[in-house]
Amino acid sequence: MRRVFLLSAFVFAALTFGLLQTETCTPAGNARLEVLELRVQSFQGPNVIPDFDPDQIFYKALFPESESVGILWVQAQDSTASIEIRHDGQLAPFTFDGLALLDVPSGSSEVAIKVSVDTGGSSPYAWTYRVRIDSVPG
Predict the structure, then answer these.
(1) Is the pLDDT score of 49 beyond 60?
(2) Residue 113 to residues 66, 73, 119: CA-CA distances in angstroms?
(3) 98 pLDDT above the threshold of 80
(4) Around Cβ 124, how many Cβ atoms within 10 Å?
(5) Can you say whether residue 104 is alpha, beta or left, with left for phi > 0 and alpha for psi between -120 and 50 degrees?
């Protein structure tokens, strides 16, 4: 009986320590997007990335070939994250509220959005989203 009690006490203490240790760990920063939209011509235009999921990194957007201006809107889930946007390999400037004006060529192009969070280690945690933009009639 005494051995069972001691074993039970040991198991309880080990499990409790493990649970407490898990609850007090600080998770790494969240390098995912909260918002990813590509709108045609203006911010009020239709969004050609309608089913955004923060855990999905590849998207295909069908952009009307009669239009050439796209408004990209991005927002990170972590407010301390940094965002870099590249359109066909070129750095795309964007505003403090996450809006970038894109010159969308006919044919196809690609937008890469890199979200980085400094985790205090030697390199930041990063997540890169890619949007392939294809021109379609209409």
Answers:
(1) yes
(2) 25, 11, 19
(3) yes
(4) 17
(5) beta
Q: Which residues of 98-119 are buried (b: 16+ CB within 10 A; e: fewer)?
A: bebebebeeeebebbbbbbbee
Q: Which two tokens stand for residue 109?
A: 């192009």
Alpha-carbon separation of residue 48 from 51, 59, 103, 129 (angstroms): 9, 10, 15, 15
Please enumerate in sequence order all residues whose Cβ is within 8 A of that of 32, keeping only pairs 6 or more positions apart, or say none: 54, 55, 76, 77, 78, 115, 127
Phi, psi of 15, deg, nearest 5:
-65, -40
Query: Is residue 116 classed as helix, strand or coil in its secondary structure?
Result: strand
Query: Which amino acid is present at 18?
Result: G
* CA atoms of 61 and 110, how far apart (whole Å): 10
Are the beta carbons of 113 and 77 closer than 8 angstroms? Answer: no
Average pLDDT value for the chain = 82
- CA of residue 20 relative to chain centroid, distance: 30
Q: Which residues pair with 76 in a beta bridge?
A: 33
Q: Structure pTM?
A: 0.76
* Alpha helical stretches, state H, the chain: 2-24
